[in-house]
Amino acid sequence: MDRITLCDLEVNYRVGVTEAERAQPQRLLLTIKIEHDLTAAGRSDELEDTIDYDAIAQRLLHFGDDGHWQLIETVAADIAQMILDEFKPARATVEVKKFAIPQARYASVRVTRRVKREV
């Protein structure tokens, strides 16, 4: 399967276990990998034959505007589901990096979700 990757998109979402942590949006980095058949796009050179990664980026920049989460696990799962629902890839992998531990470069979570096939 072909893959489109959006690496380390900087967003600011309200995420954290404590209310104090969620009081202000925090900087997160998102890496999105979407698997999709890109054969048609490779032949046509037309945007409508692929998944528009700029549209995904714009959606993610505002995804956290009205929300808040306790866990980055939930953020990753919610983003993956949104991408599946709105952009229709076969599979979406989302990594969320958070900078909450001063002694560590970052903490991250990665989830992969795929389209559920009807039986």
Short description:
The chain has one domain: 2-Layer Sandwich (GTP Cyclohydrolase I, domain 2). Strand 4 and strand 5 form a beta hairpin. The protein is built from four helices and five strands.
Task: Give the DSSP E fraction (strand runs of 2 or more residues).
Answer: 25-35%
Secondary-structure element order, N to C? EHEHHEHEE
- Spatial extent as radius of gyration: 15 Å
Q: What kind of sheet is the major sheet?
A: 5 strands, mixed
Shape: elongated
Q: Would you report the number of β strands?
A: 5
| Average of pLDDT | 95
What is the SS-derived class? alpha+beta
The rounded distance between the terminal residues' Cα atoms is: 22 Å
Multimeric status of the protein = single chain
Instruction: Give the full name of the CATH homologous superfamily.
Output: GTP cyclohydrolase I, C-terminal domain/NADPH-dependent 7-cyano-7-deazaguanine reductase, N-terminal domain
Order the strands across the largest sheet as they lie in space.
Answer: 3-1-2-4-5
The CATH topology is what? Answer: GTP Cyclohydrolase I, domain 2
Task: Give the low-pLDDT segments.
Answer: none
- Label the CATH architecture: 2-Layer Sandwich
The total count of helices amounts to: 4
CATH class: Alpha Beta
Strand and helix layout:
Blueprint lengths: L2 E13 L3 H4 L3 E10 L3 H6 L8 H11 L4 E2 L2 H16 L3 E8 L8 E8 L5
Parallel strand pairs: 1-3
Antiparallel strand pairs: 1-2, 2-4, 4-5
